[in-house]
Amino acid sequence: MQMKKYILALDEGTTSARAILFDKQANIISKAQHEIPQIYPRAGWVEQDPMDIYANQYAALTECIAKSGISADEIAGVGITNQRETVIIWDKNTGNPVYNAIVWQCKRTADICETLEKDGYGEYIRRTTGLRIDPYFSGTKIKWILDNVDGAREKAKAGELLAGTVDTWIIWKLTEGRVFVTDRTNASRTMLCDIHTGEWDKALLELLDIPKDMLPEIKSSSEIYGTFDCMGAELTISGIAGDQQSALFGQTCFTAGEAKNTYGTGCFLLAHTGETALESKQGLLTTVAAGEKGRAIEYALEGSVFVGGSVIRWLRDEMKLIHDAADSEYFARKVKSSEGVYFVPAFSGLGAPEWDMHAKGTIVGLTAGTGKNHIIRASLESVAYQTEDVLSAMNAEIELFYGKDNSKMISVLRVDGGASANSLLMQMQSDFSALTVQVSANSEATAQGVAFLAGLGVGFFESRAELKTLVSVKKSFEPQICEKERKELLDGWHRAVKACRKFSERENNL
Ligand code: ADP
Fold first, then answer.
1. In angstroms, what is the span from residue 422 Cα to ligand 1's centroid?
2. Hey, whose CA ends up nearest to atom 20 of ligand 1?
């Protein structure tokens, strides 16, 4: 019997399936990645082949172990983190999907959502699930498959179909149908789960006509769920979390007021709120934070920025202003400020706290002296301003609940994701939000989170306190502007957002 020295994280993202092997000090020993083909059957629809998801995840898993040179018996536990909200329905006898996976970005259920809204279910859904009614979440996607795939509803009623998010699908496949589970973080994104009890909500299942028997059992994010055979060893699955909650855990945000932002294509901000499910009055989402078996359910507030790092990609691919995303920092540093130029990159509307689906991108404040570097700088600033809007909405909710001067306000922001490598952007964030920004030494916060959960689940890691000792800060940013300057900059940004919304309002009326 080999000594168990490693934890394996499976990170099934939207564009690729990865596997990352960690040791006891949370060092990365080996990585493998396989791309997942995207399917766009028509405008606004996004699908993936569930077999592609599983096959690519399995390939990444075995490749990661094979190239590390370790033996599979040395792995103490396996954790799975995944793209959230994406759903798969399959036949429990054959293991074959009845339809492609409907991916979180897919907007095909917009009309189902409009009807729910019109019929007045918004308030019940917000109170029960912490979510706004939106095609983004899994529930209406499951309903769509049952309503639109020939024979699916009859088979579901006869108990022959299973439905799940990607974690559930992968675990069911790995265990050859023996284990049918999900965790609370994934369940909290389905718009079917009562986040206060951690159970499927009967009324919502009835409303969407989804038989409860086709849904998995909801468990904690860290416990032993089952085992599977792989490369001559029996591997134990002991961690599950949706990608954003996994990153929150990987950044060791465990108590109220600890927050992280992931700067990727979009930005995902989560702030831990302890055991309190803070209801948002400003359009933020209330979501379940990852936690171990036996603990009370913990929660987080979540807000996202639709266009984050992708505004930099747009400068590169569409405007051809830069060759590489990292060049944005070089050019933006060539000017001292954006000199009154503001860029509101509302390419697909504005998210929290504006929630204006009709807004279009707008650049304001141009003069004859405005050059390429100002536009690039204003683009980076837009990522930090949008994040600041979400952060201040979160702090406003926290203040509303706990009163002024409470210790649960966000004063440090831990960051990860591709664009967090941009030091100018991180300095802007610290300036605009008047808080400390900490870049973690480990760039793989998402995989690390579920590795931590899986490690705790099998006793490989002792406690959250031990995990805190395994993470370190690579770089830290403190505000360098005074409050007056900050107020002026934010005022300019908010006027730019207003101008952007005003323009779209007129467009919508035409
Ligand atoms: P995702 O996981 O969403 O695909 P990543 O975490 O890989 O995203 O981040 C990539 C995004 O970040 C891209 O949109 C890219 O334009 C942006 N990005 C990457 N590096 C930088 C940088 N140095 N400065 C600004 N933006 C960057």
1. 9
2. 419
Mean pLDDT (the chain, rounded):
94
Positions of the chain with pLDDT under 50: 1, 510
State how far the alpha carbon of 487 is from the alpha carbons of 216, 240, 339, 378, in Å: 49, 42, 16, 17
Burial class (CB in 10 A: 0-12, 13-18, 19+), 95: middle
Pocket of ligand 1 (CB under 6 A): 264-265, 309-310, 312-313, 325-326, 328-329, 417-419, 421-422
> Are 186 and 136 a contacting pair, CB within 8 Å?
no
Listed by start position, the domains of the chain span 310-347+358-386+483-509
Query: Whose alpha carbon is nearest atom 13 of ligand 1?
Result: 309
Helix, strand or coil, per DSSP, at residue 182: strand
Instruction: Give the right CATH number for 310-347+358-386+483-509 from 3.30.420.40, 2.30.30.50, 3.40.718.10, 3.40.50.10540.
Output: 3.30.420.40
Residues 263-321: tens digit of each pLDDT: 988 899 999 999 999 988 888 999 999 999 999 999 999 998 888 998 999 999 999 99
Return the pLDDT at 387: 97
Cβ atoms of 394 and 410 closer than 8 Å: yes
* Residue among 35, 84, 262, 313 whose CB has most ligand 1 atoms within 8 A, to mutate: 313
Question: Which residue is listed with tokens 């490598």?
Answer: 421
Ligand 1 centre to CA of 315 (Å) is 12
Output the CA angle 179-159-128, nearest 5 degrees. 75
d(CA 208, CA 211): 9
Tens of pLDDT, residues 416-453: 988 999 999 999 999 999 999 999 988 799 999 999 99
Look up the pTM and report it: 0.92
